[in-house]
Amino acid sequence: MREGSLRIHAVLLAIPLVLIAAQAGAHTGEGINTGFASGFWHPILGWDHVVAMVAVGLWGAFLGAPAIWILPVVFPLVMALGGAFGVAGVPLPAVEAGIALSGVVLGLLIAFAVRAPIWVAAVIVGVFAIFHGHAHGTELPQAFSPYGYAVGFVVGTGLLHMVGIGFGFLTASQAGRIAVRGAGGVIALVGAAFLFGLA
């Protein structure tokens, strides 16, 4: 009974968020004229960002408590710091490679069911969050408020983490664990495609 209830909750949580992301994918960016809206849509419209952020929630759900809530909190907090570095013009080498590697590494951690200690998982997530945040910060349009933009991308990122957590609840069953690990493999392949310039 508990297993079935968890699946229902996961699906109910994931469906509206996936629909939001699907609508965002059709958004061209026209008409976005506030820092918050631009920051909110930016992570959702970029597949290289989407896969990594969903992977954080997915890996957190796979690891269970307390990682299920610590990792999705660490990522946006550290990402905001990386964003501040980007806005301030602090250089960071290989940002795009770091973003692509986040998908590869996090996807492989999920695919191979790696159960890292919480502090190791937080460090891994935090390192990749710096790259994602820096990219957002350097792409901030001059006319937009950096504070509104930062809040927007933290909220957008949080929603993507929730999608990952929702799917991660499928690990309550054997078939669900296989599906989650398979999703990790797909995430790693998407990251590799970006890394090698195939996407």
Automatic annotation (TrEMBL):
List membrane-spanning regions: 44-62, 69-88, 94-113, 118-135, 147-171, 178-198
Lineage top rank: taxon: Bacteria
UniProt keyword annotations, A-Z: Membrane, Transmembrane, Transmembrane helix
Protein name listed in UniProt: HupE-UreJ family metal transporter
> Coiled-coil region(s) at which residues?
none
